[in-house]
Amino acid sequence: MARMTLKPLIACFLLAPAISLAAPATAPVCANAAAGALPPVSDIDYPAINQALTQANPTQRLHGLSAELKKLELSRATEATLVRQRLTLALAQSQAKLGMSVAAMGNLKRLPVTSPQAPEALMLMAELEVQNGRQKAAVRWLRQLAEFYPNEPATVHALWRAAELNHPHSRQALALWQQAAQQADQALAQANDWRARSQQPGFIDTVAAEKLPPELWRLARSTFMDPAFASADSAQAEARRQLQCMTAGQGATLRRLDQGESVLANLNSKLGNSRSTMHSLLQKRLEAAVQDWEALSAEAHFRLADAQEPRIHPGLRPKD
Predict the structure, then answer these.
(1) Which of 42, 216, 263, 280 keeps 20 to 30 A from 185, CA to CA?
(2) How high is the mean pLDDT of the chain?
(3) How many CB atoms lie within 10 A of CB 295?
């Protein structure tokens, strides 16, 4: 199979981002453990970004997204790279709708393979190739999407599209229909497994204490990027850090503070509440992932069965 010509995609390819939700392993610094301390305020203008993304007029959407991307170049926020990648895909989608296929392809090629937007980007690249009459090139992008992201819903759609471009009932297409059904079944089994794990006591603690497994990142990526989850994770890390500080010097702390016990109780409450929020969000996303894959698996098998149906050549049909 032809290899990708996207330099950033080859250079940066990983199964999943090495993201850890764990609190820093360094010794806690109690001098800065003020109760209720908040993380730095982001310098990203989310209202303006949302306004640009929801703009109905394609031309105005294009200009709005371009302006927001320029602003992001100066941002120091830790999430700026992810937001920039999201807007780059949105910009390419707008350009494609306006017939600016060359500009759209250029922006899509700038997205690294580790980007959450990479599967959608490859799908759009294939459609741009089809629009320009390059069906073989389109099939190559679709096959690469399936190779790099076997457990993404976009992969099943990519295999279906590749089968259609190969002629829906050809031998090559049949192999693609079969591959789509197999990958949907495997992803469904994986989603069910993670949903079952999420019901176990202490599940969220293991997620927060270790680097995320690639398959969990794929299934629940939207949750880990959810501001509510990030806020709860930050609150949990801060509460855990303060508890470590107080435990380390518990005797001296309780002698100095008449309300030492209530402070500890308050921190434990914060820890429990943030853990509960994170767990609830993650469970909901895993439940939704199972439902999504159940629907995709059912449709994949329906399409496979339809492709396997014997076709009668029009010239061989019995006459009335």
Answers:
(1) 280
(2) 78
(3) 13
d(CA 271, CA 236): 5
**Residues 113-155: tens digit of each pLDDT:** 888 889 999 999 999 999 999 999 999 999 999 888 887 888 8
Backbone angles phi, psi at 40, to 5 degrees: -55, 145
Q: Which of 269 and 296 is assigned the larger pLDDT? A: 296
83 vs 256, higher pLDDT: 83
- Please name the residue that has the structure tokens 């190969």: 166
Lowest mean pLDDT among 145-154, 241-250, 308-317: 308-317
- Is the pLDDT at 46 greater than 60, yes or no? yes
The first and second tokens of residue 14, run together, are 């990983």
Q: What is the dihedral of CA 253, 254, 258, 262, to 10 degrees?
A: 100
**DSSP letter string, the chain:** -PPP--HHHHHH--SS---B-PPP-SPP-GGG--TT--PPPP---HHHHHHHHT-SSHHHHHHHHHHHHHHHTT---TTHHHHHHHHHHHHHHHHHHTT-HHHHHHHHTTS-TTSTTHHHHHHHHHHHHHHTT-HHHHHHHHHHHHHH-TTSHHHHHHHHHHHHHT-TTSHHHHHHHHHHHHHHHHHHHHHHHHHHHHTSTTHHHHHHHSBPPHHHHHHHHHHHT-HHHHHHHHHHHHHHHHHHHHHHTHHHHHHH-TTHHHHHHHHHHHHHHHHHHHHHHHHHHHHHHHHHHHHHHHHHHHHHHHHHS----GGGSPP-
pLDDT tens-place string over residues 97-106: 999 999 999 9
Measured in whole angstroms, the distance separating CA 66 from the mean position of its chain's CA atoms is: 23
